[in-house]
Structures are given as structure tokens and as C-alpha cells.
Design goal:
By secondary structure, the protein is of the alpha/beta class. It is built from 11 helices and 13 strands. It has 2 domains: 2-114, 60s Ribosomal Protein L30, Chain: A, CATH 3.30.1330.40; 118-334, Rossmann fold. The strands form 3 sheets. It has a 5-stranded mixed sheet with strand order 3-2-4-1-5, covered by helices on one side. It has a 5-stranded parallel sheet with strand order 7-11-6-12-13, sandwiched between helices. The longest helix has 19 residues, at 15-33. The model has no long low-confidence stretch (mean pLDDT 90). The chain binds 2'-deoxycytidine-5'-monophosphate. 2'-deoxycytidine-5'-monophosphate binds next to helix 4, helix 6 and helix 10.
Length: 335
């Protein structure tokens, strides 16, 4: 026996809407799981406490689900929960891998039942995107893909090989011969270059500028984009970068663009580097960050730009916790 889950939402607490939504949900579950009616032993429904107009079980009976046992219950009121939502659990007499179905925005942020979803977080250096992405990934139990680390690894490979980062042909040649891997240990991304863990080295300040220069090359970007799409298509993840919402995943479920005032971004990078024992001049760092912004925003291919459907988050006067809470609320409002 398998259990198949599904959920849907309605716009108004009205009988006809409930009937339609339940019928659609059950039909989609049947179609996607190639179910025969008599394979369904029973269906348990629950609906949020704002639904009173009709019983989903009755709607199912009317939709022709007559031979299985049906049951409806009301859920307690949960703060921040999805409103006007009907959930279903089907007990099915069949040996199969269940395909859970979430319709009309009823996607749940649960790795075990939801289909793959992606959160795109773009923004300039020091906007907080990487820290925010890490925390979201931890809280939602999904993967964090730091795409900047991939460009940084390419840059490091070029610096180590003495290849001019502005020479696209030489860089492309080099990249063909280098194995770049992104692996996860205890949920933390490690970046490997030729099998060697370079996760710390790529954070060096000289690598930042080289990464920005290398990311201008279309061939490098194509290579990175393919890798990123392949990972994001396979599993739910939060990706941070410059072009995720605009180019890599234009259909990402959630898109955010983080920003902050330049002096604040410079100070954050300064603190980060200082904590690692790297000494840099704060003013120089600010100049570098502005140069990098300029370089990343004006390149011909996939420049740093906010996607039209992204939510802008200015983190200048926010703590990281506040930024994460803001993003979670915005996601909750969307689903
Ligand atoms: O986010 P970061 O500082 O680690 O990124 C380093 C550089 O890599 C950045 O200046 C531009 C480039 N990059 C990019 O072009 N596209 C991405 N998706 C991520 C990073």
C-alpha cells in the first residue's frame, strides 16, 4: 500500500469552489499516478479552519469517488499557515512510487513531500545573499548552491595556472582540462578543483576580482549555467548569485534581489576578511566593490540585474535574522 498526498487552495469559502477544487485535485492525483478508481482504498481530507461552506469528502463523493471510504476533518488554526487550503491523503492498494500533487499554489516547503522548488537570491557583493541563502537552506532542509563559488574556483584555477583571466580562449581551454565539482558534506557546500578542496582559498580578495573578470566570458557562463540548472532541476535548492532569477532559473518559484548601501557592503566584506586574518584597506575595498558592481552590471552576458518579478530587499539596516524573516514572510505570502 502507498500513501499519496495532495493539496489545493480555493479563493473563497464557497461550496462550488470547494467542489471544483477537490474534483480537480483528485483527478490530477489519479492521472499523475495512473490510478484506477478501485485501487483507492480511502481518502482522508483536512481543510483549514477558514473553510466551512462544504465538506471535501462530500465533494469527492459527488465527483464519483464512491467505492472508497472518505473522511474530512478540520485543522487547527496555525499562525502563518496557508489560508483556504484543502489537503488530501489517499491510501492506495498498489506497489508504486507515489507522485504527490500540489495545485493552486499549495506547494509546501517540505523536502519529503513537495516537488522540487527553487529560491533565487541575487545581488551585489556584500548584500548578505550568501549568509541569507545558507540560513534559508538550513531552515527548509534544502541545498544551498553558492554559484559565486563556482566562478571563484574558475578564477583560482586561472590564477594558479598563470592564465590571463581576460583571455576567454585561454580560460575556456583551461576549464576544459580542470575538474570543477560542487559537493556537500553535512549540508555544507565544498568546492573542489581537480579533486582538491579549495573552499577557503577561493574567498581570497584577489580571487574576487578575478572571478568578476572571468564571469564576463560567455563560454564560462554557459558552462556554469548548465551545471547550475542540472542541480536545481534535480533537487530543491536556494541559489545565490548575480543572474539566477534573470537567466539561470527565470522560472524560479521565489526570487529575491538583495542589496545594501556600498559602505555597508564594504564594511561587511572587511569584517569577513579580517576574521580570516586578511588585512585590507576599507576604502580600497569599497572602491573594489564598486568596480566589481560596475563590471558585473555592465557585462554583455547575463549582467547583474534585478528580475522584474523579484522582491527587492535592502539589507542595509537589517540584521541577518531580520532579512531571513522578511524573506520567509514574503514566501509565505506568495504560496
Ligand atoms: O558572489 P561572489 O562574490 O562569490 O561572486 C564572485 C564573482 O562571480 C562576482 O563578482 C561575479 C561572478 N558571479 C556571476 O557572474 N554570476 C553568478 N551567478 C555568481 C557570481
Amino acid at each position: 500500500m502507498v500513501v499519496i498526498r495532495g493539496a489545493t487552495t480555493i479563493a473563497h469559502d464557497e461550496k462550488e469552489e470547494i467542489r471544483q477544487a477537490v474534483k480537480e485535485l483528485l483527478e490530477q492525483i489519479e492521472n499523475r499516478n495512473l490510478l484506477l478508481r478501485d485501487e483507492i482504498m480511502s481518502i482522508v481530507f483536512s481543510s483549514t479552519s477558514d473553510i466551512h461552506a462544504y465538506y471535501p469528502a462530500k465533494a469527492a463523493r459527488e465527483a464519483g469517488f464512491e467505492s472508497c471510504s472518505l473522511f474530512s476533518a478540520q485543522e487547527p488554526d496555525i499562525e502563518g499557515g496557508l489560508p483556504l487550503c484543502i489537503r488530501a491523503m489517499l491510501f492506495v492498494e498498489k506497489d508504486m512510487t507515489p507522485h504527490h500533487v500540489y495545485l493552486r499554489g499549495a506547494k509546501v516547503l517540505r523536502r519529503d513531500v513537495a516537488s522540487v522548488y527553487n529560491i533565487a537570491i541575487d545581488g551585489p557583493a556584500g548584500s548578505g545573499k550568501s549568509t541569507v541563502a545558507k540560513l534559508l537552506a538550513r531552515d527548509y532542509h534544502i541545498l544551498h548552491l553558492d554559484t559565486g563559488a563556482m566562478y571563484r574556483a574558475c578564477a583560482l584555477a586561472a590564477l594558479q595556472a598563470g592564465v590571463d583571466v581576460s583571455d576567454e580562449i585561454a580560460v575556456a581551454d583551461l576549464m576544459r582540462g580542470v575538474k570543477l565539482e560542487v559537493v556537500y558534506t553535512d549540508g555544507v557546500q565544498r568546492t573542489l578543483l581537480g579533486g582538491r578542496d579549495v573552499s577557503e582559498e577561493i574567498r581570497r580578495n584577489d580571487v574576487s576580482m578575478a572571478a568578476s573578470a572571468i564571469s564576463k566570458h560567455p563560454s564560462v557562463r554557459m558552462h556554469m549555467m548548465e551545471k547550475q540548472r542540472e542541480i536545481a532541476g534535480r533537487m530543491s535548492c536556494v541559489l545565490d548569485g548575480r543572474d539566477i532569477g534573470t537567466f539561470v532559473l527565470p522560472d524560479a518559484d521565489f526570487k529575491f534581489f538583495l542589496t545594501a548601501r556600498p559602505e555597508i557592503r564594504a564594511q561587511r566584506r572587511f569584517d569577513e576578511l579580517a576574521a580570516k586574518g586578511e588585512t585590507v584597506d576599507l576604502n580600497e575595498l569599497k572602491e573594489e566593490i564598486l568596480r566589481r558592481d560596475e563590471q558585473d552590471s555592465t557585462r554583455a552576458v547575463a549582467p547583474l540585474r534585478m528580475a522584474e518579478d523579484a522582491v527587492l530587499v535592502d539589507t542595509s539596516d537589517m540584521t541577518i535574522e531580520e532579512a531571513v524573516a522578511f524573506i520567509k514572510r514574503a514566501m509565505q505570502e506568495k504560496i
